From TrEMBL:
Catalyzes the hydroxylation of dopamine to noradrenaline (also known as norepinephrine), and is thus vital for regulation of these neurotransmitters. It comes from the Eukaryota. GO terms for cellular component: centriolar satellite; chromaffin granule lumen; chromaffin granule membrane; endoplasmic reticulum; extracellular space. This is Dopamine beta-hydroxylase. It comes from Phocoena sinus.
Amino acid sequence: MQVPSPSVREAASMYGTAVAVFLVILVAALQGSAPPESPFPYHIPLDPEGTLELSWNVSYVQETVHFQLLVRELKAGVLFGMSDRGELENADLVVLWTDGDGAHFGDAWSDQKGQIHLDAQQDYQLLRAQRTREGLSLLFKRPFGTCDPKDYLIEDGTVHLVYGILEEPFQSLEAINVSSLQTGLQRVQLLKPNISIPALPSDMRTMEIRAPDVLVPGQETTYWCYITELPDGFPRHHIVMYEPIVTEGNEALVHHMEVFQCAAEFESFPHFSGPCDSKMKPERLNYCRHVLAAWALGAKAFYYPEEAGLAFGGPGSSRFLRLEVHYHNPLMIKGRRDSSGIRLYYTATLRRFDAGIMELGLVYTPVMAIPPQETGFVLTGYCTDKCTQLALPPSGIHIFASQLHTHLTGRKVVTVLARDGREKEIVNRDNHYSPHFQEIRMLKKVVSVHPGDVLITSCTYNTGDRKLATVGGFGILEEMCVNYVHYYPLTQLELCKSAVDPGFLQKYFHLVNRFNSEEVCTCPQTSVPEQFASVPWNSFNRQVLKALYSFAPISMHCNKSSAVRFQGEWNLQPLPEIISKLEEPTRHCPASRGQSPAGPTMVSIGGGKG
C-alpha cells in the first residue's frame, strides 16, 4: 500500500499497524482446538467464473470482520459490499478503482438510482494490497456496526454480498453507476459461531453420499436427486460430524446440498439419479424427508456436541437415503460433470444422548394466509407451555443448531424462548433471510428449554408482486414458517406448531361479507384458498385479518413422531400471554476512528508487493 510522499515515520507506523493487525488475525484464528488451514478459515467464490474469491475471519472480541479479496483477473477495478436483499442500489460498498493515473481504495455507498458516492465516514480500512501469483490480494477490515446511516449492520444471519467488476478507468468514484457494470450477488453467513471443535471418537468411520458423475444441466437452477442405500444389516450408529465434498472446479456451481433419510414404513425405494422435478422421478421419493445433513455455500464442517449424536441405521430406520444438490448455473455452462456430496462421520460407540430434530412454527394449512401487496406481513406459530410441560423431560432439552425455512415470500424468521410470560432469549434469528439460502446453523450458545416454556416462531413475508392471497401449504407458491431445531436428548415430541382456529377464520369471512359488497362464499363446500381468493383486499380486510391472527384461539399440533398428538385438548387454545418482550440490543459505535483514513487511499497495484 502506498500513500503519496509519506514520511519515513508515517510509513513505518502504517507498516507496523498492518503487521500487528495481521498477527491479531492469526492469533484469533488459531484459538480453536485445531489449527485451521489458513488465518482465513472461510472461503467462497463470489462470481460464477471464479475470478473473485472472498476469504474472511471474524473477531468477536474486536467486533470486526477481516476480509481477503482475491481478484484473479484485474481489469480497471472492483467493488464489493453488502445490501439488504442483494440489490446494487442502496448498497454499502468498498471500491477499488483506477482513474488512469493511479488506483484508489475507498468506502462508498450507492443511492436508489445506483449512483456511487464516497462515504464521509471511511469504515472499510485497507491493510494490505499485494500482487500474488494468483492475482491481486486485498486485505481489509470493517466493524460489525459503524453507526453510519449509509453502512450495513453485519448481523448473525444471512448476508447478501454484492460485487461488480470495473472494466475501464473512471475519473472519479461519482462517475460510476452500478447499472453499467458486470455485477452479481452471493449469500453467506459471515458471522460464524466461534465454537471449539469437540473431541472425536477413535473408532470414527466415514461414508460419502455423492451422486456419481452428474452431467450438470445447462440451466440456471437445478435440484438434483440421487437415491443410495446403507449396507444390508447396517447397525445403529451415531453421526458425529459431516462436511461437504465439492468437485474441484465446481465451487461456484454447487450452491447447497442436503441428505435425507427415507421413511421406515417402506421396505424399499427405487434407485434414481436425475432432476428432482423430473416426470421420471418416482413418487415414493417424496417420502424421503427426514434431514440427516445440510450444507450451504460458505459453511464448514458441522459438529454434534460431544455428548450427542444423530442416530441412523439399525431396526426401525430406513436404509435408503436421498441426496439433493442445488446447482446454481447462471452462465448456463454445458458439459460440466459433478460428483459433489456430503461426507458423514459416524461411530458405533453410541454417545450418551440421541440428538433429535423438532419442527417449530406454523402448521402447513391454508388458514394462515398473507394478503397480496404486503411488504412486511408477520405470521406467528407457537409451541405452547401446555405442550412442553407434557412432552419434555423434567431436565428439559438443549437446542444446539437450527434450520429456518419458508418458501418464496419469506424475508425474516425468528424464534424466541419465553418463560413465565417473559421473553428470555432468541433461539435463532435471520433479519435478511433468503429462501434461496437455507442451512443448518450451529448456535453460538446452546439454548435450554424447560417444561412449561413457550417457543414463538415469527416469519415476515413480502407479497408485493402477488395479486392473490398466499396461503399456507406444501406448494412452492404457498407458504411455510418453520424452524427445524436440532437438540438433545431425543424426546417423542417431533412437531410443536400451531394455526389459527378454523372456526374463528370463518367468522372473519362472515365479517368481510357484512362490510363489503363483494361476497366471500362461506358455504361448507368452498375451500379456504377459494375463500381467500375472493376477499377484496382493502385496508379494513387486511387489518382485521392481522388482528384475528393476533388474538384468536389456536389449534395446537403437539405431535409425536408417529404424527399422533399427545393426549389432551388441543383445539381452541388461548394464545400464550407474553407480558414482557426482549429489548433490542444497544448498538455500540466503534470508540476510536483515529486509524481510519479521511478519504480514499492511494494503492499500488503494479507488480510485486504493494
